[in-house]
Design goal:
Keywords: Glycosidase, Hydrolase, Signal. By secondary structure, the chain is mostly beta strands. It is about 15% helix and about 40% strand. It has a 23-stranded mixed beta sheet that branches.
Length: about 475
């Protein structure tokens, strides 16, 4: 029996290792992108409209319309779906729950203004910084729903500022001071403790008195989520945050939000995601792909898989395309093509950040046809020592960068901080022209590096050595 178990385990190990094949040409990921685009489709909705004003909503910016939105969405879903339409005006509301087959449609000139009262956000099953818990509902939330959308040329205003939501982060630059109640640090530490002890997620109860800010839009364990054309601004925390979702399509969305941890788009442990033609002007990373923190990410074991980031503009933000740091479930098949980024606050264009408290494998990252103006630290950054160390050494492999231009580079072109036992493996850079860089590179542990037609400040870059 022991021999049989050994043989089975060996067979599984060989099978898994055989699945890894680094790309040898850009034609391979380009072909994969083409096939993936055919799989990702926007949901279709019944051609029936439900006007929120018919359910008692008043667009005066003062009347609270939470119940009107709830009634309109419930009736729409119960009758087979359609559009819940928001006409011109400013509609104040608490949390909105999206039910299956409902398209929340904001007409041009409409604004949904979210309440600053935490009592308007019920406690739901959610994720906060990649950790499962019971906390305030996101401003727009769905759980195990199908065929849901937020569309139209209106505005979603999270109504956050230095006096509402933001100061809970505990930073004085966002309005916190010792004389006012509210700081997330004790709750954050408690949630880490719950996770480390594997306390059941539904027993990790937060909410009033804990000061964990809600995210803006969070469909959870849902299928066929679509967003188009809306402006999203002033989020309490992360802006667009689908979790454990499948078939996510986002196009022509504009995110302008400069509060603390105001990432633009944070898909967590999702499969088949395509965001295109969108605009990010944010207070943190523009796009940060995630799959859960530490024990929660590893125990659930769902990677971020099959993501396309196409033709997006990163006007402002700390990172352009970021993978991590809550990436314990791993990530694979991440394709960023045709994106533009330029900002005095941009630290890195492509960043992969993880740690040995996370673990997991990040593989098959394709960064193609990218135009970068200015950045501060590195065009390409690998970091396996983000936050505290642990006993789960991560893997980063098959990273392909091609057709990259940088006009006003920062400190490094390439910066790597890895483990000797787990070097960044199969890193390829082709047709890259970077100027204004202080130091061509700073690297430690890289394996199987390919550089073709790469120049830094007009000089060929032919090797990356410690």
């Amino acid at each position: 029996m022991k021999k049989l178990v050994f043989l089975l385990l060996t067979s599984v190990s060989i099978s898994l290792s055989a699945q890894y094949k680094p790309w040898t040409s850009a034609k391979q990921p380009l072909k994969e992108i083409k096939a993936l685009k055919k799989q990702i489709k926007k949901p279709e909705f019944r051609k029936v409209d439900y006007l929120v004003t018919d359910f008692g909503a008043v667009g005066d910016g003062k009347t609270k319309n939470t119940e009107a939105f709830k009634k309109a969405i419930e009736k729409c879903s119960a009758e087979g779906g359609g559009r819940v339409v928001v006409p011109p005006g400013v509609f104040l509301t608490g949390a909105i729950y999206l039910e299956s087959n409902v398209n929340l449609h904001l007409t041009d000139g409409s604004t949904i203004l979210f309440s600053q009262d935490s009592n308007d956000y019920p406690i739901v099953f959610t994720r906060w910084e990649g950790m499962e818990c019971m906390n305030y509902s996101s401003l727009i939330y769905a759980y195990e729903e199908e065929n849901i959308a937020v569309t139209g040329k209106g505005t979603l205003d999270g109504n956050s500022d230095l006096d509402n939501w933001w100061f809970w982060c505990g930073a004085t630059k966002y309005g916190y001071n010792a004389s006012r109640p509210g700081r997330q640090n004790p709750a954050r530490a408690k949630l880490h403790e719950y996770m480390a002890n594997r306390t059941p997620a539904r027993e990790r109860i937060f909410g009033d008195g804990w000061y964990l800010r809600p995210n803006f839009i969070q469909p959870y364990k849902s299928k066929n989520f679509y967003m188009a054309d809306v402006l999203v601004k002033n989020s309490p925390m992360w802006n667009l945050n689908p979790v454990l979702c499948e078939n996510v399509l986002i196009e022509r969305v504009k995110v302008i939000s400069h509060g603390p941890n105001n990432d633009g788009f944070d898909p967590e442990a999702c499969k088949n995601v395509w965001i295109k033609d969108s605009y990010f002007d944010t207070g943190d990373d523009c796009i940060a792909i995630k799959s859960g923190r530490d024990e929660d990410g590893r125990d659930i074991g769902r990677p971020a898989e099959n993501h396309i980031i196409e033709n997006c503009e990163m006007k402002d933000g700390h990172g352009g395309v970021v993978i991590g740091s809550e990436i314990a479930g791993g990530a694979k098949n991440i394709y960023a093509i045709g994106n533009v980024m330029d900002s005095k606050n941009l630290d890195r264009a492509l960043r992969i950040k993880t740690s040995s408290s996370r673990g997991g494998t990040i593989e098959n990252v394709f960064f193609y046809n990218t135009k970068v103006g200015a950045y501060k630290e590195a065009a390409v950054r690998f970091n396996m020592h983000y936050e505290k160390p642990g006993n789960h050494i991560p893997t980063i492999r098959n990273i392909w960068v091609e057709n990259l231009t940088v006009d006003k580079g920062g400190k490094y072109a390439v910066f790597s901080d890895a483990y000797e036992s787990s070097p960044v493996t199969d890193f390829t850079m082709i047709n890259a022209k970077m100027v204004g860089v202080q130091i061509p590179y700073k690297v430690d542990y890289l394996k199987n590096v390919t550089l073709k037609n790469v120049t830094v400040n007009g000089q060929p870059l032919t090797e990356l050595k410690p």
